Amino acid sequence: MIKTKEFYDYLKTKELDFFVGVPDSLLKNLCACIRENSDSKHNIITANEGNAVAIASGYYISSNKFGVVYMQNSGLGNTVNPLLSLADEEVYNIPILLIIGWRGEPGKKDEPQHIKQGKLTLPLLETMGIKYIVLTDNYKEEIDKCYEYMKNTNKPIAIIVKKDTFGEYKISKSKNDYTINREQALDCIISQLNDNDFIVSTTGKTSREIFEIREKNNQDHSNDFLTVGSMGHTASIAFGMALNTDKNVYCIDGDGSFIMHMGGFAVIAQNPCENFKYILINNGAHESVGGQPTVGFEIQIDKILKAVGFNNVYNAYTIADIENGLSKMMGMDALIIYTKQGSRDDLGRPTKTPIENKKSLMKKIQK
Ligand SMILES: Cc1ncc(C[n+]2csc(CCOP(=O)(O)OP(=O)(O)O)c2C)c(N)n1
């Protein structure tokens, strides 16, 4: 196991001290270390991984230095366009050090959404012509090799990080003053909905908590589309569903997911749909992968949603606010719920497969 701070310090000896990316559960310790030891000009948590590649490219253009992009392999898809049409040697030829958490590594047990991506991580890089090194304890030599390669070729190179590669690096979670947590908010939402209301929930702990709340209530799961991957696309899935049914479709999103593909909201709101309702649980963090901050508390999401065309946008800080907001919500309205961070240590995962989930929902919504 690599001592995380020593790895970080070694990167710095090579002037690899500009970090940009989207946090990942496998890189939780590294992300925490970067966050604690880099100032805000040297660690930018981006909306999505493609933005990170573009920012690292801009950084190189103005400094001649190599940016370090961190991400989960789920985010590799978001980087394909800027890697191939910006950084590629046949376009601008820009060196970037990619650090990629390898979820779904073949032979290791992981969740369904990581299996195909895990299998294809190395082949995808090979297809894109991106050289990679799988990180081992011999990390100094490996970083040296990456550095020399970037210097000699001006091409991006990837470090692939397997599970449990980095040792624990603990920092205290950022706290806020909100009183309820996500699970309490979800519990309240579910108690207010009826059998004709459908949910599309975002990836991470939101969907896991919804699954457990239904179990606790002895309800089945056929009203819920528990998105397990596709971070940032929850609202678009819900919108697509809402367009083609007269049932209510409630999107339950997270701030990291909202920010990841915020452009989608402009188009959704400009195509009003009376049965689409948007709920955002804003904890100001990527809580599901370690609590790294988003800009969710810095931006005025209610004003953004109004500006792109949502009708009424309600803010909620308490259970009573949620009940009140839900009772008033009409189509193309939004409810933003401000919560503290935190979840149960014993939080489980859906025991139904994504395909079982999809099939039972399709049967019910098409009735
Ligand atoms: C494209 C992509 N990038 C990164 C991830 C890893 N990931 C899973 S959940 C999550 C955090 C989501 O944050 P938010 O939407 O705010 O919800 P919260 O976890 O705070 O409830 C991240 C970064 C992913 N699944 N997909």
Descriptive notes:
Helices cover about 40% and strands about 15% of the residues. Helix 4 links the parallel strand 3 and strand 4. The strands form 3 sheets. It has a 6-stranded parallel sheet with strand order 2-1-3-4-6-5, with helices on both faces. A 6-stranded parallel sheet has the order 8-7-9-10-14-13, sandwiched between helices. The chain has a two-stranded antiparallel sheet with strand order 11-12. The longest helix has 16 residues, at about 110-125. The protein contains 14 helices and 14 strands. It folds into 2 domains: about 5-160, Thiamin diphosphate (ThDP)-binding fold, Pyr/PP domains (Rossmann fold, 3-Layer(aba) Sandwich), CATH 3.40.50; about 180-365, Rossmann fold. Helix 3 (about 50-65) runs parallel beside helix 4, helix 7 (about 180-190) packs across helix 8 and helix 7 (about 180-190) packs parallel to helix 13. The radius of gyration is 21 Å and the shape is elongated. By secondary structure, the protein is an alpha/beta fold. The mean pLDDT is about 95. Bound molecules: thiamine diphosphate (TPP). Thiamine diphosphate binds near residues 72, 78, 286, 288 and 294.
Give me a quick take on this structure.
With 367 residues, the protein is an alpha/beta fold. The chain has 14 helices and 14 strands. The strands form three sheets. A six-stranded parallel β-sheet has the order 2-1-3-4-6-5, sandwiched between helices. A six-stranded parallel β-sheet has the order 8-7-9-10-14-13, sandwiched between helices.
